[in-house]
Amino acid sequence: MTASRSALLVLADGRFPAGGHAHSGGAEAAVKAGRIRDAAGLEAFCRGRLHTTGLTSAGLAAGAALGLDPYELDAAADARTPSPALRTAARRLGRQLIRAARAAWPGPELDALAAAFPRGAHQPVVLGVTARAAGLGPEDAAHCSAYETVGGPATAVVRLLGLDPYQATGVLARLAPEIDEVAARATAAARGGVGALPAASAPLLDITAEQHAAWPVRLFAS
Amino acid sequence: MSLRATARIAADADGSLPVLTSDGPLALRRTRAAVPGWTRVTVVGAMSAPLGGDRLAIETEVRDGARLRVDSAAATLALPGRSPEPAAYELRLRVGGDAVLRWLPEQLVSAHGSDLRVRTDVDLAPTARLVLREEQVLGRHGEPPGTLVSRLAVRRAGAPLLDQELAYGPGASGGWDGAAVLGGHRATGQLLVVDPAYEGAPPTARPLGESAALTPLAGPAVLVTAVAPDALALRRILDAALDELAPE
């Protein structure tokens, strides 16, 4: 498949209007708990998130881009997301993404997905179907998903801690080889079908998501 | 020499154990149940296993209408072996219609230098109930942990209910000790309660102190996830949750 490199840039661009900027990926709770205080803490957080939630999300996205059944993928995503706060966030992000995706790459698969999941499918599933609609492949979807897993928290921590944006970008650049590795693993797993998808999880992200959801005032939605 | 052993349990509704087969280091004993009407099995022999290269498994079948509690006499200690291969520990649990399984073993301790892959596969009938506790302790007192990868996959009526994999230690991917995963904690565990009665009225999600949370799953089940500085603090959190959600 000759994927369009530019379509990938459009989809992965932080300015793509899919609502991701409102979510910190657990970074807001980690900053409040004092677990992220500086660039080193951000890097350890992002690396852990990448190899857990990031791998799992990238697998779902790659699976959807390969054309695996979205219902099965969405059920697999539910089983991999014990936190209701995170399930709600994933579906809200899925709903926002599909709106932008249908405007950018209109087509029958996205229409069918939107009709099948009026409350939103899990975001990685929507991302994978969007990649298909944009003429991209499973590796592209996995890269996009894995990158979002760390890009979101890095941007959020710049705002939350007043961290130097150059340092935050440095964290992302240092993680780039591992993002490639996670995307490759996720894609290879997705080729084995829904039963072979990764299920890597992160206890603190699940625990703190519920704490964060109970805060009366917060800067980010999750 | 690395070893292979598969122990087997089958429990019937009349309280009998038509299958109770020990194998190698996995010695099973029928023990006295604290609650009338229940059958209890204790794993008494897994203390010094698994070593590197070992492949151990326990298969448990709780037949329709049976009520079975399985526990263990001591913590399971993963130790390095002579084989460079990781050790494997597989638990295959099937719970039938109107049957109940309480799976409450002691902790799994990942000793320095060990490398263990745990896989727990649970298949539940639609009317089955389950109480399952897992606790992982990273290293014996004051020592760095071994490598531990633990997958828990629960299917109910054939559909996925919970699927999680935890990976810690020197053989895990990076960031496992960072703020997203363990954040310096050395013990982590889960208590899963599956009960069709949750279908209408699931408990509400809530934090349990600073380092644990109670979360209703997408199906009729609740998961308590906890991290703690040590095994004792972890057990305190999970015991309180067990008393609240599924007292014996």
From TrEMBL, chain A:
Keywords: Chaperone, Cytoplasm, Nickel insertion
Pfam families: UreF (PF01730)
UniProt key word Nucleus: no
InterPro entries: UreF (IPR002639), UreF_sf (IPR038277)
Reported function: Required for maturation of urease via the functional incorporation of the urease nickel metallocenter.
PANTHER family: UREASE ACCESSORY PROTEIN F (PTHR33620)
Protein name (database record): Urease accessory protein UreF
